[in-house]
Amino acid sequence: xxxxxxxxxxxxxxxxxxxxxxxxxxxxxxxxxxxxxxxxxxxxxxxxxxxxxxxxxxxxxxxxxxxxxxxxxxxxxxxxxxxxxxxxxxxxxxxxxxxxxxxxxxxxxxxxxxxxxxxxxxxxxxxxxxxxxxxxxxxxxxxxxxxxxxxxxxxxxxxxxxxxxxxxxxxxxxxxxxxxxxxxxxxxxxx
Length: 191
Hints:
Number of helices: 7
Mean pLDDT: 78
Number of strands: 0
Oligomer: single chain
Structural class: mainly alpha
Radius of gyration: 18 Å
């Protein structure tokens, strides 16, 4: 069953803007990433400390607003950013995963890495947070927030933790995505 929700023209425009920004971000990211990465775990710990503070502030703001609409959008952002963090760890463990299929690779190396469990853990938490978010807000608001954070959080981690370059055109694409999210989430009901 698909829930029937009211979608305004502004929401639809916001979704189109998000799709354009997301597509261009993927296209313009080609060649700016290293094939294999090593995570600076101290830098990642600092990133997570700031990350947790931002989400704590978002939770407090959501509670103060007492708005299911805001709560759904904020939880959508949380679930998307967790999914983005999971993607970063997925990139980190990809090399170890492929080594499993070579003569030198062992499953013990893959399964003894904390990065493997962080990948699986953040991905599962992302899925659970998304399900909770969908209970609180309209799917169009939750999914647009989720999708934007799914793109945005790996970009921030690439820049601040992995030291990968983020080109000005990619920042422009992220601004387009944020604009789409603003159009979608700040939409008023049409009469």
